[in-house]
Amino acid sequence: MENLYKYCLRLADNSLILSHRLAEYSSKGPYLEEDLAISNVALDHIGQAELFLNYAAQLRNDGTTADDIAFRRAEKKYLNSQLVEQPNTNFAYIMARQLYIDAYNFLLYTQLKESSDKTISAIATKSLKEVTYHFRRSKEWVIRLGDGTAVSKSKMQEAIDDLWMYTGDLFMEDEIDKEMILKGISFDQSELKMEWKKIIEETIVEAKIKMPENQYVITGGKIGNHSEHLGHIISDMQYLQRAYPDAKW
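Predicted structure:
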């Protein structure tokens, strides 16, 4: 049960942290429609995180709530990929980050629809429509920027290159993943990685930019090792909970 709880946290935390990172860009989009789109994607991720956190709270069965899990953990207890905590350097970075995570989520949720865990299957089925839209949107933007002006092309290439190293977390497998695979709850990440990389390569070719020359990746987010950026996100996320514990709104 503990490993299933942690597996749910991994799914939840990717969406939870990414939603807060995207929310930081609200009112800063290149134009009004895109500004609203970024905010809506953030809301979608909050919704997905809430579903997984509610399930995680049920698994604990000790009075812990989804809000407790979301806002009252130490930094090391967050199990998200380091990719989703990277800063909003510029619009190209946001779209590169989204392409990497959106393509992954599209493939993952498609598989999780068939999960032996009925709750996870239901969440994946419910969220797949949103995830599909996210993937289509980020792919179109990467192509648009890569095949745009000299400046947009340069910025898109830089973002694709710089963020590549953080994609390793997405496909790292440990004993938790192996148990989930054995029980039919999750699926082999190596197969997912092959399909993901094919999608990324095809998108980058269409965008007329290049795959990162340095293929080095780091891992650790899924076991609580994070970049310096997560602490700053959490300090903002947890401010009200720490300032006004147990406050009712």
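Summary: The mean pLDDT is 94.
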